[in-house]
User: Fold this.
Amino acid sequence: MLGRTDSRMRLLALLAAFAVLAGVLGVRLAYWQLGQGPDLRRIAAAQQQTAPEEAEVRRGDITDRTGAVLATTAYRDLLAAYPDMMTNDQMDSVAAQLGQILGMTAQQEASLRASFSPSDVPVSYVVISHELTEAQDDAVRAGLANGTLVELDLEPHPVRVYPTAGGAPDTTLASQLLGFVTTDGQGRYGVEQSSQSTLAGTGDTTADVTGNAPLPQVGGNVQLTIDSSLQLRLESELYAAWVADRAPRVSGVVMDANTGAILAWGSVPGYDENDYADVAQSDPDLFNDPIASEVYEPGSVMKMFTAAAALNEGILTLTTPVQDQKELVFGDNIVQNFDKKSMGTLPFEDAIANSRNVVAGKVAMELGKTNDDASNVLYDMWQRLGIGQQTGIEVANESAGLVPDPATNPWQPIDLVNHSFGQGVAVTPLQLVRAFAAMANGGLLVQPHVYAADDAAAQANIQQVISPTLSDTLRQLMIHVVDAGPSYAVQTKIPGYVVGGKTGTAQIWDPQAGGWLPDTYNHTFVGFVGNPAPEVVILVRIHDTIPRVPVRWGMTLELTSNELWRRVALDAISALDLPPLPGYDNTSIDPSEPPYPTTDPAPPSGPPATAKPRGQTAAAMASGSGSGRP
Assistant:
């Protein structure tokens, strides 16, 4: 018979072992709960708050056509605090010292202190600043090192940086074209907005079917067609005109005449994208880009479209004699030339070069057997050359313009005449650059684009919209316009290069006052430079400006639009390394020629039938009368 296997001593030993184990576990639990509890809570809170930061994707770079960086991602320190690890005295001291380091007001400092312990209960984690400057970062680190600051943490955090200064003070390069990125990682305006999906990549960390979270993908880079050297020079020239002419804004664009690649694009004043939040508070209008999104009435540059329609219809040639006269009368409306005079009989090319409104109006009325026919012919030429249509440029908020269609709203004779010299039609600068390129490059309507990746697609999208013969004639007409007189030619010609273009100077209607703004005009020059074929097309616009320099024919600007254009063209020649045409001499000027005024003081003789919004001079169906300006 087997004996019993249990015993009293064995049971007591087992109970004692359990008691010792329980005691050890209790001591360890007390250690974690009491001794390490605050640290654990701090770590947990930090993990909860910083988890999104760990999933942030490095945004892709934006570069120019050479690879120079225009926008990139850098890392700045986020400043956080752990108030539940501080005493009340430490909270007071830390808040006071951070107030000085971060430049806080007394009210901001008090709010910071209150955030440490709302309702007298210290919180575990507070984000104090999402981005410290280098100086602030150094000051915080020094405070932590010497013990005057406690229970703070510096956490690396990706931020968008625009490293290149612009051509005007306190700006970054191509600010309105590029846009900026907000703290939530969203691109706003320009390329940053239109390329958000490419640049931002993806930060999705959702676990896959294996239970493993995929790593965030780095954002893709975007290369632009912009030449940063030319961009800087363009902005510098625009800034000089902005100062000299005391203009509210000056803008310009340089485009490859044969491919549509945008080489430079900007307006002054711009802004510093690194300080976009301050700009949003002080002057958010600086975010708007006038090149593609703002429409305006350009004035006499539109006479080139009237010439294109007339030459295409075979109504006349460049040398056909035309009869100028002092005015055209349509009931209560009177159309006059800018000088309120007649030049008598002169070749058609000279009428365009001397910007005769009356001749442009008379030629427009001859485009068809009836007024409706003539209106449709002119409108058709606008449409062929892209006027009234979005160009398809890859930036946000492009405008199609305000262009009246005679098929839906028939033009009256006064409308036809006014439209012939650029009154009552509102376009974007980008539309004008594209149209003038087609007039000069053989009749090809190019696709404007700012992304280098779109070069091939843009090339495939080029359309033949007018004949090469018509384009050659229009190119010769633009060259003749520049040659028209000593003053104009001296301000525009470039030795060794073929230059052609047209000015436009349009007065601005103020609907609030019910009249024209006194002596205030939009000044535009758009033209090409080549050797001999057009290489680039350039447009400059001096916005809403009063001519203040007296000359014998009236008043002009300190820096005229055609002189500004010439300076930008010289910059393009230098930056793009365009060689001169060997043996080409275009500098000789006949001093007996009468001076060609680039501006004049004569206001239109009456208001438009439809009031125009101030600052944009846009009236889709505007009709009325005017003297216009060259």
